[in-house]
Amino acid sequence: xxxxxxxxxxxxxxxxxxxxxxxxxxxxxxxxxxxxxxxxxxxxxxxxxxxxxxxxxxxxxxxxxxxxxxxxxxxxxxxxxxxxxxxxxxxxxxxxxxxxxxxxxxxxxxxxxxxxxxxxxxxxxxxxxxxxxxxxxxxxxxxxxxxxxxxxxxxxxxxxxxxxxxxxxxxxxxxxxxxxxxxxxxxxxxxxxxxxxxxxxxxxxxxxxxxxxxxxxxxxxxxxxxxxxxxxxxxxxxxxxxxxxxxxxxxxxxxxxxxxxxxxxxxxxxxxxxxxxxxxxxxxxxxxxxxxxxxxxxxxxxxxxxxxxxxxxxxxxxxxxxxxxxxxxxxxxxxxxxxx
Length: 340
Description:
Elements: H1 3-6, E1 11-15, H2 19-30, E2 35-38, H3 42-51, E3 67-70, H4 73-77, E4 80-85, H5 92-100, E5 108-111, H6 124-131, E6 139-143, H7 148-153, E7 157-163, H8 166-176, E8 181-186, H9 189-211, H10 216-236, H11 247-258, H12 263-272, H13 277-284, H14 290-304, H15 309-319, H16 324-332
Parallel strand pairs: 1-2, 1-4, 2-3, 4-5, 5-6, 7-8
Antiparallel strand pairs: 6-7
């Protein structure tokens, strides 16, 4: 293990100046580390540094003294031993292409992006690995019930870091864990990433039910059966089933599907109330990862032969113009079966 990191001397870089990247950078700085937040837009980065706050996404949460902001990738990665990737999933490939020229075999990479490539279905760590092969197995993934605003506010929670190399997972834990975040480790990278990505699809479905005026019975039933879908697809693609019962599975699923801080839940709420997808996304003004992930999930389900009726109906509402009430009726009319 890298002793410098465990002694709290290692430099950290966080790529992504949105709410999630900013929250993670603040968390790392609060844990006593020197961290540089990379924001793509030069003017926005200057504004963050001047105001010492992300007033657009996390107003009221000032930056610690040990946190710097830059739009210069070389500056952000210079001296960094751990790089946390917290950009939207659709931007990971392009950002990593820019970052790769500044990375070598000594860098560790932690994916904090919860999504799938909508064209290939690849997990984020796989995209990172393909763009930065020089980092080898020194790549990890983070997931759990970690809403950005609550992380920034210091609300206690837990998360899981998965890596093939346990030393890498331990280093990531040493950077992130503190008085408000308890961090567990795992070697099931696929399970942690699929849990973090697929729960967003179900959160949209949960929001649709809530937007239509249904109660907790409906949402609980949908999420329970949805968890079974997540587990089926994940295990078909190499994940361990027990991972979906943990923080990156059921834990993240509950937080994202019940909190109105969740963008994916809010997309579903808007759809359930009769808005279009375009209207819902415009009102939120940020990326809702569950939207492209629904497309990726259905492509993966088709290629593996895994039945995902809830994801399929959610896809139909999102992309095929199916009324939400019709999607729910289709689910309720399915043939009877044993639960297990």
